[in-house]
Amino acid sequence: MNVIDIVDRIEEFLEKSKRIPFSSNLIVNENEIFDLLDELRSVLPEEFKQSRWIVKERENMIEEAKRYSERIVSEAREKAKMLVSETEILKNANRESEEIMSAAEAKARTIRLEAEDYADEKLANLEAVLHKLITAIEKGREQFRRSVDSREK
Predict the structure, then answer these.
(1) Within 10 Å of residue 106's Cβ, how many Cβ atoms?
(2) Binning pLDDT at 50, 70 and 90, where does residue 139 land?
(3) Residue 125 lies in a domain
(4) What pTM, to 2 d.p., does this model score?
(5) Domain of 129?
(6) 68 to each of 105, 106, 136, how far by Cα in Å?
(7) CA-CA 20 to 30 A from 98: which of 7, 9, 41, 114?
(8) Is residue 135 situated within a structural domain?
(9) CB within 8 A of 53, min separation 6: which ones?
């Protein structure tokens, strides 16, 4: 079960709770709401681990792209050294080396941007989930405070 599902269950629980007549307060079973919050706490660390995994995966992809581009550049340099003897062959080798370097840099840039976009998307999703959760908790706490205040009066 994920955070969104639990937040949905909390909202559903609150919607099904009985209302106190002539007020916007709810009567809720304290144990049930605390059980749902405990369940939410147990899932949140997993969501955080996933976001850290996404960032690490992005860094690995960038590092892999860098190694790949370095390997291609190295291979292009080696190839260019072998063709030094003739001017025309050397010109072709330099041109090919630059094309390979440009292609490798473009591919590395593309991989890096895709990894950043992916990580940003996952972090944005996590942020939205956490925002929803905080909003739901704040509403629940506010309603709880109102019901406590109304009982004290």
Answers:
(1) 11
(2) very high
(3) yes
(4) 0.35
(5) 3-67+105-152
(6) 10, 12, 47
(7) 114
(8) yes
(9) none
